[in-house]
């Protein structure tokens, strides 16, 4: 019997007119079923039935179950409306809001829900940490991820396999493979996900040899690799352009009794695309079709960037046509964003806009793709208008959105508009300014000849000076004949007036950009000698058995050393 039929039978039962806890048990059970099977229509009917009878939704935590049902079905807007009406939401409702927000790409909102627990009586559970760590992966916010790791340690969840796996995944995807390996090695118990996450982490940073060592060690410890483990390795070989190694692993996988499925093909195609081997990706896709393997949305989204790499709009249109023939939902934000990016890279912003307007439920990635498309083609006014429309429709912008708009302003000389948006990021758009945004604005000011403003911004900004920021400033100085300002910035570094992380890196970038590499070495040696400046390794501290343990990572080789202090 389907959910809709059960819903009809339950709602026709006379005793359900009562509002007692017992009479609402079948309804609570039905909501759980709607959540499990993602039955949005049935869930809405249950919600309507409860509202029309004036049911107290606090009974049996029906309000939290409604949040879970809507979130599970992907209706984040309805989940949010129900959640906001709960005076004291429980951890179940909060976990669902974190999960749904992160899944839809609203990482800042997900973290906001997580942080709201700190000021309440809630006790985090293991699912909370597993979920929120995915949001930090989405933002690539390693520092916040480390803070959560510290909380995990304090609350005793580090021994939980699911939480530890999430930590390994977070550190790996944030590019901190040394920390990921430290967490992995400390795990008392590891499952197939633990090994696969660590192997995938090594493959993602090109350390295939280390991944292979773990792969063999995993089998020695009695765990058989699954499809995902094999796919991680195959994708790693494809990403670095080793087609022979990828196909060799594919054959080995088959010999060991695992039949390569669509996930395997997708992994190889995505690997070749990420390794900028568009030709191999297209050939593999053709082989897949010849063998009768039907592609899915992941296949298409993975292959479309290859069309942009070779500027082949014909191939892109052919894949777009295949999407229609296979009756994929063209309004799906995931596939639509990939199509927009493809048309943008191939120079057809009109076709990109056509795809964009057909998306029923546009997410932030869709808006970013279209805003970025106009920016790349110098259509700054249209890009800004779309950005304002996005804001007007209540879609929360993220870091990428603001970067797209600022980049458009920079490359088209819209300095005043760019500065207006930059300085209102936090207040109006609720987005923190990061190094990428500062780099974009320094570049914008330097391009336009406003070197004094760029100089003042670099001196006052509260973040480290990156090579891209330094390079943008120095290039502007050279283009506009302001060698004096470049030398003034160098003097600030050498005198120690510019006391912030990255100052020496900036000096290196300035000299390196002008080709004076010998002067880089001599000047850096002189500064280090005179000021006795030493580069300290990054250090994270956690508490363990009343001892302070520091985990250090050398940035050059990602080697991990642990010392007690």
Automatic annotation (TrEMBL):
Record Pfam families: E_motif (PF20431), PPR (PF01535), PPR_2 (PF13041)
Output the superkingdom of the source species.
Answer: Eukaryota
Q: Name one GO molecular function term.
A: RNA binding
What processes in GO biological process is this protein linked to? RNA modification
| PPR repeat residue intervals | 191-225, 226-260, 261-295, 363-397
The record's PROSITE patterns line, in alphabetical order, gives: PPR
- Keyword set for this entry? Repeat
Q: Which InterPro entries match?
A: E_motif, PPR_At4g14850-like_plant, PPR_rpt, TPR-like_helical_dom_sf
What name appears for this protein in its UniProt entry?
A: Pentacotripeptide-repeat region of PRORP domain-containing protein
Species of origin reads Populus trichocarpa (Western balsam poplar)
């Amino acid at each position: 019997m389907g959910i809709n039929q059960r819903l009809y039978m339950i709602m026709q039962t006379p005793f359900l007119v009562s509002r007692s806890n017992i009479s609402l048990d079948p309804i609570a059970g039905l909501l759980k079923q709607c959540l499990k099977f993602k039955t949005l229509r049935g869930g809405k009917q249950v919600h309507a039935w409860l509202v029309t009878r004036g049911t107290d939704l606090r009974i049996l935590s029906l309000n939290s179950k409604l949040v879970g049902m809507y979130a599970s079905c992907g209706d984040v807007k309805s989940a949010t409306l129900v959640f906001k009406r709960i005076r004291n939401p429980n951890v179940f409702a909060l976990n669902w809001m974190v999960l749904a927000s992160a899944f839809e790409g609203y990482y800042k909102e997900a973290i906001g829900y997580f942080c709201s627990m700190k000021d309440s009586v809630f006790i985090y559970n293991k699912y909370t940490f597993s979920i929120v760590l995915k949001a930090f992966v989405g933002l690539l916010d390693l520092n916040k991820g480390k803070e959560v790791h510290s909380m995990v340690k304090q609350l005793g969840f580090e021994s939980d396999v699911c939480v530890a796996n999430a930590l390994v995944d977070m550190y790996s995807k944030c590019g901190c493979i040394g920390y990921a390996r430290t967490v992995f090695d400390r795990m008392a118990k590891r499952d197939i996900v633990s090994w696969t996450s660590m192997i995938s982490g090594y493959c993602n940073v090109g350390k295939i040899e280390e991944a292979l060592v773990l792969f063999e060690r995993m089998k020695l410890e009695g765990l058989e690799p699954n499809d995902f483990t094999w796919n991680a390795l195959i994708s790693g070989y494809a990403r670095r352009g080793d087609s022979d190694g990828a196909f060799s692993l594919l054959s080995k996988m088959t010999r060991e009794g695992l039949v390569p499925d669509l996930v395997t093909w997708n992994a190889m195609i995505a690997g070749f695309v990420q390794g900028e081997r568009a030709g191999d990706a297209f050939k593999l896709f053709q082989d897949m079709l010849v063998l009768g393997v039907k592609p899915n949305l992941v296949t298409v989204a993975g292959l479309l960037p290859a069309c942009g790499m070779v500027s082949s709009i014909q191939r892109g249109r052919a894949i777009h046509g295949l999407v229609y023939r296979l009756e994929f939902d063209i309004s799906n934000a995931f596939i639509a964003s990939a199509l927009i990016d493809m048309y943008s890279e191939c120079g057809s912003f009109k076709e990109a806009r056509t795809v964009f307007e057909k998306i029923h439920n546009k997410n932030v990635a869709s808006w970013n793709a279209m805003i970025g498309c106009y920016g790349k083609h110098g259509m700054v006014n249209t890009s800004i208008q779309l950005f304002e429309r996005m804001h007007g429709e209540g879609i929360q912008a993220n870091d990428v959105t603001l970067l797209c708009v600022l980049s458009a302003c920079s490359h088209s000389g819209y300095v005043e508009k760019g500065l207006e948006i930059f300085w209102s990021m936090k207040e109006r758009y609720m987005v923190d300014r990061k190094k990428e945004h500062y780099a974009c604005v320094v570049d914008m000011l330097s391009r336009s000849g406003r070197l004094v403003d760029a100089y003042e911004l670099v001196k006052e900004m509260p973040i480290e000076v990156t090579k891209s920021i330094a390079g943008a400033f120095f290039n502007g100085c050279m283009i506009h004949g302001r060698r004096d300002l470049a030398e003034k910035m160098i003097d600030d570094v050498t005198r120690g007036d510019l006391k912030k992380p990255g100052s020496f890196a900036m000096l290196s970038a300035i000299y390196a950009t002008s080709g004076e590499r010998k002067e880089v070495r001599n000047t850096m040696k002189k500064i280090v000698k005179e000021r006795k400046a030493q580069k300290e390794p990054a250090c994270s501290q956690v508490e363990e058995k009343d001892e302070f343990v520091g985990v250090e990572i050398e940035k050059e080789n990602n080697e991990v050393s642990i010392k007690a202090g």
